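Incident review: delayed structure delivery

Summary: a single-chain prediction request sat in the queue longer than the usual turnaround. Root cause was a stuck worker, restarted by the on-call engineer. No data loss occurred. The affected request and its eventual output are reproduced below so the record is complete for anyone auditing the incident later.

Affected input:
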Amino acid sequence: MRDYPLYLAPMEDVTDPAFRALCKRYGADRVYTEFVNADALVRDIASTTRKLTIHDAERPVAIQIYGREPEAMADAARIVEQAHPDFIDINFGCPVKKVAGKGAGAGLLRDVPKMMAITRAVVDAVHTPVTVKTRLGWDEPSLYLPDGTPFIVDLAERLQDLGIRELAIHGRTRSQMYRGEADWTLIGAVKNNPRMRIPIIGNGDVCTPERAKECFDRYGVDAIMIGRATFGAPWLFAEMKGLPAPKTMAEKVAVLKEHVLASIVWCGNDERKGIIHSRRHFAASPVFKGLPDFKQTRIALLRAETVEEVFRIMDYIVDTYA
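Output delivered after worker restart:
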């Protein structure tokens, strides 16, 4: 698995510099920023421009943008290019209502002509390689065209023709959100289409080294993008690649502690804010899954608001369960 590229998926409120650095340390071949709202970036909203913060140690790194109008997306891409990312990624896959419901992200799967216009505008606006992340389609009825061609196969060709350099595909429709199983057969159909010349990145439900190898071997993708499985487990990349990774509970908890401290720094050295920002990793970390009689300890951990309290509870967990 060492030669198989593994990417950290772009995730809002997750893939900030603190988390990206840990994933990079443990073998992520490429990392992506949180997705950046094009309109807010053009308006110079501070909380949005802050998302353009990248460091050389992260490279290769992609900055992902989303929006619903070609001109705004082109303007945003020009601004992003000034941060010197290795790639500018267009988000055509976010399923959440506040994005897709407003005609951006996966919402553009219902307006392919506008998706094409946005892609063309961004590619023409910058010199940085442009990539795209999308889904299989809007819903199950839209998965196939009238002639039987998979929608995503046709869409991939059209995006390629506009000059994108790579395409990442999440193996679900927008309507599925994150429910059900990702359909890798349609991702494989895109990769095995003889007309495709650009790399195809598969995404969805890759949580173990065994599944990662299976997806590479069976579907032939050029890279795999991993998202929610990394929550509270940045060492997953190393496990999948057979690289040195923390093995004991104590070693893994030490990494979670490091993430807490880095999150506090990222949040302006605001202790409470940094802890709250990293809580989703406590909640989802496999380190704490399946521990007996853990409910009250978990509640205490997720309510803690000081480093001293968080670390004390983590130490108690190690002493009790390791």
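Verification: The first helix runs from residue 17 to 25.
Action items: add queue-age alerting; document worker restart procedure.
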